[in-house]
Design a protein that fits this description.
It is a single chain. By secondary structure, the protein is mostly beta strands. It has one domain: Domain of unknown function (DUF427) (Metal Binding Protein, Guanine Nucleotide Exchange Factor, Chain A), CATH 2.170.150. It is 0% helix and 43% strand. The strands form five sheets. A four-stranded antiparallel β-sheet has the order 4-3-11-12, with no helix packed on it. Strands 7-8-9-10 form a four-stranded antiparallel β-sheet, with no helix packed on it. A three-stranded antiparallel β-sheet has the order 2-5-6, with no helix packed on it. The chain is globular, with a radius of gyration of 15 Å.
């Protein structure tokens, strides 16, 4: 059963207005990722993927990531829209987050602009920020959306949302 969307407040957008299939759009907001006491990513050249019921997932260009902290993983997954995803572990000093980031080597169709761009699971990082606001991770541990105060839900990933 589809949940009842929250009414967006002033300056908010509803994730229930996002399309399916998902959309890709450039973002000129400042995106930051921290782990192990290090700033591992900083960009104003990200993309975000918008999909019904999901908070946005941000994809960052590799040139704006400290790639020395990114270690290849054997894990792969498949997205019906973007294709095969590959993963990175994030390692800083003696800290390691397993399969904490992912990317698409050969994304399909309209997602080709994010080739090689990296998305991070906020719940595995020390903190992730959008325009200085610390994000909340999308509920559950499967999806990688970032929740900010300018979004209205409810968000896919909460208990009972499997069929949304």
């Amino acid at each position: 059963m589809r949940p009842k969307p929250e009414k967006p407040g002033a300056g908010q957008e509803s994730v229930w207005d996002y399309p399916r299939p998902p959309a890709l759009e450039p973002v000129n907001k400042t995106i930051e990722v921290y782990f192990g006491g290090e700033k591992i990513a900083y960009t104003r050249n990200a993309y975000r993927v918008l999909e019904t019921s999901h908070p946005p997932t941000y994809y960052l260009p590799p040139e704006d990531i400290a790639m020395e902290f990114m270690k290849s993983s054997d894990r792969t997954t498949y997205c019906e829209w973007k294709g095969r995803g590959s993963y990175y572990h994030v390692e800083v000093k003696d800290r390691r987050a397993e399969n904490a980031a992912w990317y698409y080597e050969d994304p399909r169709g309209k997602f080709s602009p994010i080739k090689g761009y990296v998305a991070f699971y906020a719940h595995l990082m020390e903190r992730c920020l959008v325009n200085g606001e610390v994000v909340q991770p999308q509920p559950g541990n499967f999806y990688g959306g970032w929740i900010t105060k300018d979004l209205a839900g409810p968000f896919k990933g909460v208990e009972g949302s499997f069929g949304w």
